[in-house]
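Structure ticket #2291
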Amino acid sequence: QVPFVESGGGLVQAGGSLRLSCAASEITVVINAIGWYRQAPGKQRELVGRIGGGYPDYYRDSVKGRFTISRDSAKNTMYLQMSSLKPEDSAVYYCNTPFQLQPWGQGIQVTVSS
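Resolution: structure written out below.
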């Protein structure tokens, strides 16, 4: 059983919005720092942002003010709300616990058309 199941991706026009969801274990969502990553073709996987775990929130500069990470402990789910999307945001998105990485899920494709 994979620790994470991502959903909610798809094709969107530039300037549009999407919300990604990540189903995870109760302990993961409630206790740990949670984060979203992305990997574009030919590029390394990068941390998009993370929250919780007693650490200051972090978002990479390219998504600050546009992306927001949140969690719903009752649903054991974390979210990535993305707005003002740009073509360069196109990638496969993954969730994980940044300070104690677990096996990766399949990820979810986000494609932003210009």
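Closing remark: The two ends are 37 Å apart (CA to CA).
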